[in-house]
Specification:
The chain is built from 2 helices and 9 strands; from the N terminus they run βαββββαββββ. It is an alpha+beta fold and 141 residues long. It has 2 domains: 56 residues, 2,3-Dihydroxybiphenyl 1,2-Dioxygenase, domain 1 (Roll); 74 residues, Roll (2,3-Dihydroxybiphenyl 1,2-Dioxygenase, domain 1). The strands form 2 sheets. A 5-stranded mixed sheet has the order 5-8-7-6-9, with helices on one face. β6 and β7 form a beta hairpin.
C-alpha cells in the first residue's frame, strides 16, 4: 500500500518560467533537469514536483474533468503572508479563503495550473471541516 503522495507532475509551456516561479515562490530546489523535464524538491526526496515542458500546451477548459489544484502546506501564517505579498507583487490574482480549519490562497501558476497554498489552523481535538468558506485578509496574518 502507498504511504504518501510521491510527487506531482505538471505540464507547462515554458520550463524556465515555471522553474523560476516554483523556486522563487516556494523555495523548491532543482535536483535534476533533462531536456524538457525538471525535478524539484523540498529536500527530503529526489523530487516533490516534476515539470514537463510542452511548448504550446493549453489548460483544460473550465469545468472539465481532471486535476483541480495542487496544494502546498506552509509552516506558518508569516509564510502564507509572504507568499501572498510575492504573488500580489507580480499581479497574480489570488483568492484568500478561510475554511475554518485552514487558511488558503488559491491562484493559477503561469500555465493555468490551479495552486493552493495553505496553513492548517485546526486545534488538537480533531476538528473537522464544516463547509465554512469566507474571505480573509492575508496581510492581517
Amino acid at each position: 500500500m502507498a504511504s504518501h503522495l510521491g510527487h506531482v507532475h505538471l505540464v507547462v509551456s515554458d520550463l524556465d518560467r515555471a522553474l523560476s516561479f516554483y523556486t522563487d515562490l516556494l523555495g523548491l530546489s532543482v535536483t535534476e533537469q533533462q531536456a524538457n523535464y525538471a525535478f524539484l524538491s523540498f529536500g527530503e526526496h529526489h523530487h516533490d514536483l516534476a515539470l514537463q515542458a510542452r511548448p504550446g500546451a493549453s489548460s483544460p477548459p473550465p469545468n472539465s474533468r481532471g486535476l483541480y489544484h495542487v496544494a502546498f502546506e506552509l509552516d506558518s501564517p508569516a509564510e502564507l503572508r509572504e507568499c501572498y505579498e510575492w504573488l500580489h507583487g507580480r499581479e497574480i490574482g489570488v483568492q484568500p479563503v478561510d475554511h475554518g480549519i485552514s487558511k488558503s490562497l488559491y491562484f493559477d501558476d503561469p500555465d493555468g495550473n490551479g495552486i493552493e497554498l495553505y496553513i492548517d489552523t485546526r486545534d488538537d481535538d480533531g476538528e473537522r471541516w464544516s463547509g465554512h468558506n469566507t474571505r480573509f485578509d492575508p496581510m492581517a496574518l
